[in-house]
Amino acid sequence: MSYIFPVILLSVMAMALFKRVPVFECFLRGAKSGLTVLLEITPVIVGFVAMIEVMKASGLFDVFSSLIAPAADFLGFPKEIVPMALLRPVSGGGSTALLSDLLSQYGPDSLIGRITSVMSGSTETTFYAIAVYYGSVGVSKTRHTLFCALLADFTAACLAVVTVKLLMY
């Protein structure tokens, strides 16, 4: 199976040569276009990463977690997964670090470990995705995107809890 990618790549290049497409020139044009997009979205990413670090360092996530804990308890969420549910839409790296901490603390086969694992795989780094994708094409008004994406993340978190509790406990 390790030969599939080279076969596909060589097939595409052979087809391009057969159709007399200037392969290297097209590659250079695409690379230049990619660098242009990278330059356009870099300030957005830098600002976003800085915002995340400030929120984590200031303890804002801990404050939100303690405010949401009673509602989470009412919904049947273990209080230990609330920080993961809050951090996942904001930071992929931060939520992965938190997942690692929770797995080492509670174990991968625990209720907490399984719920956070399912949650990690079924939710998105919403703010990052919106910043990168909309920033790359210059969209500044996201309309209903943020609300719908956060609603989808909330739904995925709830379903992670329900699914793990139904299927594994």
Textual characterization of the structure:
The chain is an all-alpha fold and 169 residues long. It has one domain (40-168). Helices cover 80% and strands 0% of the residues. The protein has 8 helices and no strands. It has helices at 4-18, 23-58, 60-75, 82-87, 92-106, 111-122, 126-137, 145-168. Helix 2 (23-58) crosses helix 7 (126-137). The longest helix has 36 residues, at 23-58. The model has no long low-confidence stretch (mean pLDDT 87).
Top keywords for this entry?
single chain, 169 residues, mainly alpha
Main sheet makeup: none
Assign an overall shape. extended
Helix proportion range: over 70%
Tally of contiguous helical segments = 8
Report the C-alpha radius of gyration, rounded.
21 Å
Q: What sequence of helices (H) and strands (E) makes up the elements?
A: HHHHHHHH
Low-confidence segments:
none
Structural class: mainly alpha
Q: What is the number of domains?
A: 1
The number of distinct β-strands equals: 0
Proportion of residues in extended strands: under 5%
Distance between the termini: 37 Å
Write down the overall mean pLDDT.
87
Topology:
Elements: H1 4-18, H2 23-58, H3 60-75, H4 82-87, H5 92-106, H6 111-122, H7 126-137, H8 145-168
Helix pairs in contact: 2-7, 5-6, 6-8
